Amino acid sequence: MSNKTGQTILALLTGAAIGAGVGILYAPDSGNNTRKKIKKNAKKTQKELEKQWKKTQAQLSDKAHVTREKFESRLEDTLSTMSYKADDILLALEEKLEDLRTKNAKFQKEGVVEKIEGKVAKATK
Prior knowledge:
Order of helices and strands: HH
Keywords: Membrane, Transmembrane, Transmembrane helix
InterPro entries: Desiccation-related_membrane (IPR052928), YtxH (IPR024623)
Low-confidence stretches: none
Mean pLDDT: 84
Protein name: Gas vesicle protein
Structural class: mainly alpha
Number of strands: 0
């Protein structure tokens, strides 16, 4: 229930209570009977307001529960998606690292070959 609906219902109940009170006050009846009618209408209005208050509380509680469940579900989905993306990033980094290791080994091997060739060239001179 939206806030406007609750305000509208409260305004209608308040208007009804005021209208009933004014009607009773202008009705030709004894003071004792008038007070009884006012008290009766006040209790009736109070019960209606309490009923509406409990109904509104229950609806808000239900909405809060549903909203919390949706949030938890979305959070779980997001964390799951992020976990997969993190795995993808780690795999890409591992592939890049292996590529760099291969290139480094190649460069080291080429450096050793060049040193040997240099030593062989010096020795044969």
